[in-house]
């Protein structure tokens, strides 16, 4: 069987990576694995991985001869024809808090939407992380095909038997001292800032925050790859730029608390049971003008919504108190969105595809 893998248009990451590794662990013989690869991320692919440059005739040839295509995003290569008998598994890459595709507050041009809809029409299966997410994904993509409601394979590591050892390894590699509190700051992008192509502040004065939090706190900065060109706070004794780390799941394990805004990382991080703080300094702008939300963040989110840096700092200085104040809401959030995340999602997906 020839299997073509694609994550974020050329990376070794996310749900496709988790499924690839789980499939290799099954010891199947006779499969051919090809990854679509962006040269900028080639170093992250394991030694011995067969890759083809994305956006090239070789990539089109791979797609047109695939028995199975596994992708976590739209495949937008011109003029590729799905092979007879081939299957396309779309894993997607997050539970949509922000409205996406046809549910978004504003839509791209007709040509772009037509290309995306063409890709959706090819999907044979769509992976969903939860029953609640299934409805959101079906609505956003106007998708009526088969859904594999399994949990997200990429989150299996968060419940794996070696998660504590992996946490220790990642923290050591990042230079997080023993006993320190690691704060993962993982904001999403803003459509207006990302499109502008210019530097924009990350919404948080990281230097001031670390000064207030003291020497026993390390901030792990994870910017969205759409804004990788933006200014970043200087790294140093208590700030680590983890924006280029290949697997954000490692950072979930390494962190003791997540600070985010409107990123789907909140749904994945909640699998760990560790606290989530929502730093929504531009809530009205993002909610009412840029995207809109699928849930009420203030009453249905996994943690307190903090509108300014002073409130965020206070919550981090009293993290047990902040977590306790949101305990019931956090439990409801986890029950709604994380119930399938038991560490066996990849097994369920592979079994559903008959890849035993």
SSE diagram, text form:
Layout lengths: L1 E5 L7 H12 L6 E6 L13 E3 L3 H8 L3 E4 L15 E4 L19 H13 L2 E4 L2 H11 L4 E4 L13 H12 L6 E5 L5 H6 L9 H8 L3 E5 L17 E3 L6 H7 L2 E4 L4 H5 L6 E4 L3 H8 L6 H4 L4 E2 L2 H9 L1 H7 L1 H11 L7 H8 L4
Parallel strand pairs: 1-2, 1-4, 2-3, 4-5, 5-6, 6-7, 8-9, 8-11, 9-10, 11-12, 12-13
Short recap of the structure:
By secondary structure, the chain is an alpha/beta fold. It has two domains: 165 residues, Rossmann fold (3-Layer(aba) Sandwich); 181 residues, CDP-glycerol glycerophosphotransferase, C-terminal domain (Rossmann fold).
Description:
- The chain is of the alpha/beta class and 356 residues long.
- It has 2 domains: 165 residues, 3-Layer(aba) Sandwich (Rossmann fold), CATH 3.40.50; 181 residues, 3-Layer(aba) Sandwich (Rossmann fold), CATH 3.40.50.12580.
- Helix content is 36%, strand content 15%.
- It is built from 15 helices and 13 strands.
- The strands form 2 sheets. The protein has a 7-stranded parallel β-sheet. A 6-stranded parallel β-sheet has the order 10-9-8-11-12-13, sandwiched between helices.
- Helix 1 packs across helix 15 and helix 5 packs across helix 8.
- The radius of gyration is 20 Å and the shape is globular.
- The protein starts with a strand and ends with a helix.
